[in-house]
Amino acid sequence: MKLFVVLSCLLAGCLAQRPHPCSSPPLLSGALSVNEKLWVTARYLYDALGQRIRLDEFGSHDNKTFSLDVLLLYREATMYEIFHHNKTCKKMPLKADFQPLGIPKTASLLGQSVLGSSSGPGQGLLVNTWIGDLPDKQGKFMTTVTEFGCIPITTLYHTDQFGWMMTNFFNNVIGISDPSQLNPPDFCPETEDSTEEPADFLNIKISKYSKA
């Protein structure tokens, strides 16, 4: 009984403390899902230090299914689409700034809550939800992260071009077991640069699969 009271007091103390904007761990791996105009599930690797992201996806758009393995190299403004079945790559220009996971200092706290239950130890997860503007006033976002560790849970954002899109993160692990996955495969360096106009990742994906 005493242990329960102590835990309850600790939880109450946590809830009483005002959360602050935070940065997610610089190296993360796990899985995510995206839905609304484009439905996707993916395994992801995230490297904020090198500004690199790897996505191994399966999804659907306009009732058409697709799979996609991409490496996004933001410092090089380059995206590789990787085809393992014939060991080839397509190299494309990437027009986007790297957006680190976490909560920017300009965000406003919407609220703090417990996912699950606060009735007993191990039954719930303390999270914070924030709202704010996307970079360059491109739209609005609402992001939920864990109170401890600033691990992403859900991000909901709105742009004029794509409307509302929601990303759910799960099975997150701090660190990357195989960092080589964030480099182009050996068969990619000989790939010639694409003559396509630079575009952001969502534009490239939707354009590709809406024509499939």
UniProtKB/TrEMBL annotation:
The keyword Signal applies. Coiled coil: none annotated. One of its GO terms (biological process) is cell-matrix adhesion. InterPro entries: Ependymin. Keywords: Signal. Belongs to the ependymin family. One of its GO terms (cellular component) is lysosome. The keyword Signal applies. This is Ependymin-like 1. One of its GO terms (molecular function) is calcium ion binding. It comes from Seriola lalandi dorsalis.
